[in-house]
Amino acid sequence: MTAVVPPLIPGAGPAGTLASLAPDAEQLPLPTPPAPARQTELVYALSRLDASGRLSATGVLAQLRWRTSIRLAATVIGTSVVFRPDRHGVFALDPKRKVVVPLLLRRPCRLRTGDQALLVADTRDNILVVHPTAALDKIVLARHASLIGGPGDDH
């Protein structure tokens, strides 16, 4: 009678199964999916307020397609100024396509000469909103706090 000799396989266990030849690998984190494409009609710019209360807004005004002849109405809401086209508006762009924020509107927003402001053109609603950086700081600080688990609101 002939005996069958099992094959000799390096790394094989007593039952003939193969043991792992590679060390245990750490599980890699799943990749983060890319951020969704923007679904907004907003255009942003930062501008410094000059001594005459003007903000350079060429890029955002180009998106709004506002000409220098346009008449504007302006309203202070909270600490921001909202400009919108109005045939009977008392405000206008200056000839160099800068937005003029009169002192009467700057005071409640606490905008002073040399301050930066965030200009947001909403092309869907055809408005321009001027936010002082203090308002921007508040929004960004809340967002950062929510990212690091501090007191903030991410919703």
List the defining traits of the structure above.
alpha+beta; Chemotaxis protein chec; six-stranded antiparallel sheet; elongated
Structure commentary:
With 155 residues, this protein is an alpha+beta fold. The protein has a domain at 42-145: Transcriptional regulator MraZ domain (Chemotaxis protein chec), CATH 3.40.1550.20. The protein is 19% helix and 26% strand. The protein has 3 helices and 8 strands, in the order ββαββββαββα. The strands form 2 sheets. A 6-stranded antiparallel sheet has the order 1-7-8-4-3-5. A two-stranded antiparallel ribbon has the order 2-6. It is elongated, with a radius of gyration of 31 Å. The chain starts with 41 loop residues before the first strand and ends in an 8-residue tail after the last helix. The model has no long low-confidence stretch (mean pLDDT 84).
The average pLDDT value, as a whole number, equals: 84
Stretches with pLDDT under 50, minimum 5 residues: none
State which percent range the strand residues make up. 25-35%
Strand tally: 8
Share of helix, binned: 10-25%
- Termini separation: 80 Å
Q: What's the story with the biggest beta sheet?
A: 6 strands, antiparallel
Q: Using the 3D structure, state the CATH architecture of one domain.
A: 3-Layer(aba) Sandwich
For the largest sheet, list the strands in their spatial order: 1-7-8-4-3-5
| Rg from alpha-carbon coordinates | 31 Å
By CATH, the superfamily of one domain comes out as Transcriptional regulator MraZ domain
What is the CATH domain class of one domain? Alpha Beta
**Would you list the SSEs in sequence order as H and E?**
EEHEEEEHEEH
Spatial shape: elongated
